[in-house]
Amino acid sequence: MKKKDKDTFILRRDFFPQIKMLSREQRGDLLTAIFAYSAGEELPDMDDVTRMCFGFIKTSLDANAEKYQAECAKNQENGRLGGRPRKPNASEKNRTVSEKSDRLNGKANGYSENPVEYDYESDLDSESLSVRDAAAGAREREEFLKILFFEKQILRPQAELERFINHYEKCGWVDAHGNAIRNRAAALRTWSPAKDAEKVPKPIRDAWFTVHEAVKEADPDCDATVMLTQFRGLHVEGPNIYITSGDIALRDFLETDGRRPAMHAALKQLYGPDKNVNYRIPRR
Predict the structure, then answer these.
(1) CA–CA distances in Å: residue 206 to residues 31, 150, 200, 242, 267
(2) Torsion angles phi and psi, residue 174, rounded to 5
(3) In terms of C-beta density within 10 A (0-12 exposed, 13-18 middle, 19 or more buried), how is residue 220 classed?
């Protein structure tokens, strides 16, 4: 996003389900990246998860910036055309009061002296089509990650999803024939992953699908993307079941009341009732 003559930007509430999954350090990197991007400065280093989260926010920032610029251009054109026409037979007194009111509202001469306060802030409670279609919603992101993880067996689906989104952002979300892509999930299903993308073995994929569905059934409203982005492996050693995770976010998510019994029940159904569930989290 090019640097704009504007010192504000909009962050949407529906980004929070992803943000709250990040560690404090990751949130700091994400916030720094948002401000740097809005100011046209170099982005900080980010890990894969933080970079994926930033990718969705970046799409929203770009869409809102485009609308802002369009509104500014419209207001400037109105100004060149003389602004709002004067009411016929209006008295000088009424005209003076009207102009005073316009100045107080930031709309003197038919254009906004402060476009952000004039119309742009109305976006806080609305969803433009471009933002809604930008894969920014938590449910849509989870659907995309499920396609990559369970259907294409990609072990680290967030990196592949970022690759998919970056590709189609550059070409304006049109296919090879120049047709607008209306169904992005369908486009993802025909997407060819990177040749070096690490795959999930089918037995592990099938077992984790059972666990994922059990957790979602126990807590239907939860955002379970961390089960796809932080899962690294599952294996059994004697009486123990080991879940390998990218960081503690997956463990914290699964051990929440309500999800834990569902997760344990699914694993014990798969591997036996006498198994203990453990986590392996690599040291940073």
Answers:
(1) 36, 8, 10, 16, 12
(2) -125, 155
(3) exposed
Contact 83, 111 (CB under 8 A): yes
Count helices and strands (H / E) in the chain. 13, 3
Question: 3-class DSSP state for residue 58?
Answer: helix
Arithmetic mean of pLDDT, 172-188? 89
pLDDT at 209 over 80: yes
Task: Say which amino acid occupies 128.
Answer: S
Q: Which residues pair with 199 in a beta bridge?
A: 154
Q: What pairs with residue 180 in β-bridges?
A: 174
One-letter identity of residue 282: P
Q: Lowest-pLDDT range, 92-106, 109-123, 204-218, 262-276?
A: 109-123
Q: Is 225 left (phi over 0), alpha (psi -120 to 50) or beta?
A: alpha
The 3-state secondary structure of 213-275, one letter per residue: HHHHHHCCCCCCCHHHHCEEEEEEECCEEEEEECCHHHHHHHCCCCHHHHHHHHHHHHHCCCC
Q: pLDDT tens digits for 131-152?
A: 444 434 678 889 999 999 999 9
Sheet strand arrangement including 231-237? 231-237, 240-245, 276-280
Q: What percentage of the chain exceeds 70 in pLDDT? A: 73
The fraction of the chain above a pLDDT of 90, given in percent, is: 42
Lowest mean pLDDT of 30-44, 121-135, 216-230, name the range: 121-135
3-state secondary structure of 154: strand
* Closest-CA residue to 156 (of 47, 282, 252, 29): 47
